[in-house]
Design goal:
Elements (H helix, E strand, L loop, with lengths): L4 E4 L10 H9 L6 H16 L5 H12 L3 H10 L6 H5 L1 H6 L4 E8 H10 L7 E4 L1 E3 L5 E4 L10 H9 L5 E5 L2 H8 L5 E5 L6 H6 L2 E3 L2 H7 L14 E4 L5 H9 L3 E4 L6 H7 L5 E4 L7 H6 L5 E4 L9 H6 L3 E3 L6 H16 L2 H9 L17 E5 L3 H12 L3 E5 L11 E2 L3 H7 L2 E4 L13 H5 L5 E5 L8 H10 L2 E6 L23 E3 L8 H21 L20 E8 L4 H11 L4 E8 L3 E8 L6 H7 L4 E7 L1
Length: 629
């Protein structure tokens, strides 16, 4: 079967701009009537691209309005590479591999198009465009009238003159591109809508393509089992930072967002057809949810913890789970320091009294941080950074952790939790959300704390018996507390909140905002989004919390086969036997396993029998198989 010849329009197809409108911004920057002339140019462009005005007339009228010089054209030429469309940038490899069967056909100007064509590996004689004519002073006086592209219906004439062999595929956004198909100069015409959508053009197109990925998939160029990115659906819940949405959409994926969390039944309904789910701490991804997720590839927790996700069930279904374990560390640490100061000085109660008109200036019970002992329970990313900042403020730091941790600065490790509780003036919890940490602080532990000590929990709600904490505060044994997390938390801001800690003296309650700063949420969004893109685009599982971690480079001139399987004997041997039987040349292979799951990544030559992919999907022990190109 003969490979298709691809012919691409330039303006609003290969680039995000209309050349003449971009030149208007440059050439008319100081003109007093710039706004009116730009509006007229834009209107002419739209009329020409919609078939309301013939192209040649519109081109010449726009040039008259512009009064271009060579310097104006060179300014745009210098920056044209930055204007390449998102899906074009993603598919540079396609142009490089198929350059001999790719043409750029445009009513625009050759010298503007040339730099991008060169970047895509397209030869100069495959760039078919208008040539500007300059006078001796470098002013544009027009275009070469002998060039068919300078007049109406010129594109079909140029294509027919090429005498191309094989199916001709036209890709463009305007009426002049549609004319190619209507004149019989192309076998198929894709109305390209990534930048602009024109209804009249779409009406006569064979298909609509929202990205180049769609075109390549439909034409079978990107690999039979590949899948256009804009067909991969992502659902982000709980008001995830827009930086994540921007990054994922920029990469070509379809993203839907929702402000609140969903309960199990609603999530089961919403997750149908979803490939990627993004959540924060309020949405529970249960085994039942995963059983109903028909297309789910990955879950991203845009937070530190993953205890709201059934990790084992996700692994059983081949669903990779990622989180952002370090991105909000600084925000939590700063809040812990601030709360400690506020508790030490009884600021919250004094402020509340002031709002009631009570002036109560007193130093009784008000203390400095300097010289006090901070006991940190959990010395991971947050606990260790808190240790450094507290010590810099003059505090003495002790810590307890079940894992072996390197003490930072002058911090001292305590071998038991009881020993830490007995010695600390301030106890701050920073443990993870595993079930083993449930109620590690109860009445017995609170009784072992120093009388008058302060207590902070910015970790997980289920690690503290809040009823016991309320009693310790009421009795006066604990002088104050700051609690940011609770055993039961409202799903949305509209739901009610109740706790036995409400109304108690020198108690600060905050609505799980430890990591809720603009800086942290943006950092989490960027980190989690990049982890998702690494997995979707490369198969990279770095920082994945439920599958073996494998760090991978980009796929380059190969097909990448990703095979997740149950960790059982013989799977790799069977996989390689199938590859060998199909005559596939293995360019590289990685295998990583944990006690439950195996993950094999195999890069193979592009030429292959598609039937082998079905064999790989059906291998005993296979959990999930997918292919990247």
């Amino acid at each position: 079967m003969t490979s298709p010849v691809f012919i691409f329009d330039f303006d609003s197809t290969l680039v995000r701009i209309e050349t003449l409108e971009a030149l208007a911004d440059i050439a008319l920057s100081d003109a007093p009537d710039a706004a009116a002339r730009k509006a007229e140019i834009a209107a002419l462009t739209d009329q020409a691209m919609s078939g309301q005005v013939d192209f040649g007339t519109a081109l010449r009228r726009r040039l008259d309005l512009l009064a271009l010089t060579r310097g104006h054209v060179e300014t745009l030429t210098d920056r044209i590479l930055d204007e390449a469309g998102a899906s074009i940038r993603r598919n540079v490899d396609f142009f490089e591999r198929h350059a001999e069967r790719v043409y750029i056909l445009s009513g625009g100007f050759r010298e503007v198009i040339a730099p991008l064509a060169a970047r895509l590996g397209i030869a100069a004689d495959h760039v078919l465009a208008n040539d500007l004519i300059y006078d001796a002073e470098g002013r544009v006086t027009g275009v070469d009238d002998a060039n068919p592209l300078s007049r109406d219906n010129g594109k079909p004439e140029v294509i027919k003159a090429l005498n191309l062999t094989g199916p001709v595929v036209m890709v463009g956004d305007g009426w002049t591109d549609a004319e190619v198909k209507l004149a019989g100069a192309a076998d198929r015409f894709y109305a390209f809508t990534e930048v602009v959508s024109r209804p009249k053009v779409i009406e006569v197109a064979d298909a609509t393509a929202a990205s180049l990925d769609e075109v390549l998939f439909a034409e079978g160029v990107s690999g039979r089992w590949s899948y256009p990115r804009n067909r991969i659906k992502m659902l982000l819940l709980e008001n995830i930072h827009p930086a994540a949405v921007e990054r994922l959409e920029e990469a070509g994926y379809s993203v839907e967002t929702m402000k609140g969390a969903l309960d199990e039944d609603d999530l089961i309904e919403a997750i149908k057809g979803v490939h990627v789910l993004g959540i924060r701490s309020k949405t529970n991804v249960s085994k039942r949810v995963l059983e109903h997720a028909d297309r789910l590839l990955a879950v991203a927790a845009f937070c530190i913890g993953t205890n709201q996700i059934d990790l084992e069930a996700a692994a059983e279904h081949g669903v990779a789970v990622f989180n952002a374990p370090y991105s909000n560390t600084r925000s939590v640490v700063e809040l812990a320091i601030g709360l400690t100061i506020v508790l030490m000085r009884d600021v919250a109660d004094k402020s509340a009294a002031m709002h009631q008109g009570q002036w109560n200036k007193s130093a009784t019970g008000s203390r400095e941080l300097r010289g006090k002992t901070l006991g940190i329970v959990g010395y991971g990313a947050i606990g260790s950074q808190l240790s450094v900042l507290a010590e810099n403020l003059g505090m003495r730091v002790i810590f307890h952790d079940l894992s072996e941790r390197l003490a930072l600065g002058n911090a001292r490790r305590m071998r038991s939790l009881d020993a830490l509780l007995a010695e600390a003036d301030v106890v701050s919890l920073h443990v993870d959300g595993r079930k083993d940490n449930t109620l590690i602080i109860g009445a017995a532990q609170l009784a072992k704390m120093k009388p008058g000590a302060l207590f902070l929990n910015l970790s997980r709600g289920h690690v503290v018996d809040v009823d016991a904490l309320a009693e310790a505060l009421q009795s006066g044994r604990i002088a104050g507390a700051a609690v940011d997390v609770f055993p039961e938390e409202p799903r949305t801001n509209a739901d009610p909140f109740a706790s036995p800690l409400q109304g108690l003296k020198n108690v600060i309650l905050s609505p799980h905002i430890g990591g809720s700063t603009e800086e942290a949420q943006e950092a989490i969004a960027e980190f989690a989004a990049e982890r998702l893109l690494g997995y979707l685009n490369r198969g990279d599982t770095t920082f994945c919390v439920n599958l073996p971690n494998v760090q991978l480079a980009e796929v380059s001139r190969a097909h990448r086969l990703l095979h997740i399987h149950r960790n059982q004997p013989g799977v790799l041997a069977e996989l390689n036997r199938a590859l060998s039987s199909a005559g596939l040349n293995i360019l590289g292979q990685h295998l990583k396993t944990d006690e439950r799951t195996g993950y094999v990544i195999t890069d193979v030559d592009r030429d292959y029998d598609p039937e082998v992919l079905k064999v790989l999907r059906d291998l005993p022990g296979t959990v999930r198989f997918r292919m990247l190109h």
